[in-house]
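Field log, afternoon session.

UNIT: design team B
ACTIVITY: writing a sequence onto a fixed backbone
BACKBONE:
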């Protein structure tokens, strides 16, 4: 991929993420959000892995400046960092089973990390093993919407990127072919 296409790929990736970020500020059902999918996509899409891992944290931080911070923020940010790391194992090619597995893994990572933060910081549950189990048990009903949301948004992000990159590569090949 030449320099122009690398720049276009960056612009496309950032545009897709900006569109998804707008969902955080729009009314939406509880636990329906593209953020987990954005972290997974960023890890798989951007070749600069430091950028790929920092971007979701930056997006969260900037939006939390507007929406407000919460006690378990470090647990949530850590979860997104791990999800981004999982995303680095993916490629920009649309590979359905890999995306399915990574999306499921991301949902589970976020469930574990965010609810650990709720247990640790909220005071809603006793600081015991029983309290931890109660916290996770109480969170199970919310997991379904998160899981479906993560799957839909992950497939949408990777799918859009695959279509646009395929189109970019086709256009590049057409431009490089000698005209007869």
């Amino acid at each position: 991929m030449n320099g122009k296409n690398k720049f276009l790929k960056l612009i496309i990736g950032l545009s897709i993420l900006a569109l998804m970020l707008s969902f955080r500020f729009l009314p939406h059902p509880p636990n329906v959000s593209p953020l987990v999918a954005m972290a997974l996509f960023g890890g798989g899409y951007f070749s600069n892995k430091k950028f790929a891992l920092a971007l979701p944290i930056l997006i969260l931080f900037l939006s939390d400046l507007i929406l407000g911070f919460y006690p378990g923020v470090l647990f949530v940010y850590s979860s997104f960092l791990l999800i981004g790391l999982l995303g680095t194992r993916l490629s920009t090619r649309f590979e359905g089973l890999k995306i399915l597995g990574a999306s499921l893994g991301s949902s589970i990572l976020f469930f574990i990390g965010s609810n650990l933060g709720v247990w640790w910081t909220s005071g809603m549950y006793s600081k015991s093993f029983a309290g931890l189990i109660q916290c996770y048990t109480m969170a199970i009903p919310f997991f379904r919407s998160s899981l479906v949301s993560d799957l839909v948004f992950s497939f949408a992000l990777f799918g859009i990127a695959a279509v646009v990159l395929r189109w970019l590569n086709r256009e590049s090949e057409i431009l490089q072919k000698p005209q007869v």
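LOG NOTE: Helices lie at 3-25, 35-45, 49-67, 73-87, 96-121, 129-176.
NEXT ACTIVITY: expression trials, pending approval
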